[in-house]
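sanity check this fold:
=====
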Amino acid sequence: MAATIPKVRVAIPGELRSLCGGSAEVCLAARDVRELLARLASEHPQVHVRLCDERGEPRPHINVFVNDDFCPRARLDTPLSASDLVTILPAVSGG
C-alpha cells in the first residue's frame, strides 16, 4: 500500500496573495519542502516564479519555515506531516 502524501498548510505572504486568488493560506500535498515548492510551481506558477529560481530553489531573499523552524536551502529535503504549517517570508530590509 502506498504511503499517503500529507496535505500541509502554506502561508502566503501578503504581497503575493493576489496571485493565488487572494488566499492567505493554500493547502498542498507534499512529502518534503522540495516537493512542496514543486507543487506550488504547478498549482500557483505566478507565486512560484517570485519565490524560486529556475532550478526550483528558493531565491536568496526568501526564507522558508516549517512550523517555527527555519528551513535553509540546504535542507529542502525536510519531511512534512499533515499538521505542519509552512511559512514563506521574503526578507525585509530598509535603511
